[in-house]
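User: Predict the structure for this protein chain, please.
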Amino acid sequence: MKVAVTYEKETGNIFQHFGKTQYFKIYQIEDGKILSSEVIDNGGNGHHAIPPYFFYKRPAPVKL
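Assistant: Here is the predicted structure, written as structure tokens:
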């Protein structure tokens, strides 16, 4: 399963506002273990445009 988490690149912490985050950290998880992760930008999108952006950029299912 892939999970997208809002991400603050400068601190390495979760960003507190989904619609204003500049980055997401995508985790690949299997059997309760993190297999890999990557940081991607939000494509300049905010709020309602972010979920469609993920489906366009990442065709595999991602949980937001």
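The mean pLDDT is 80.
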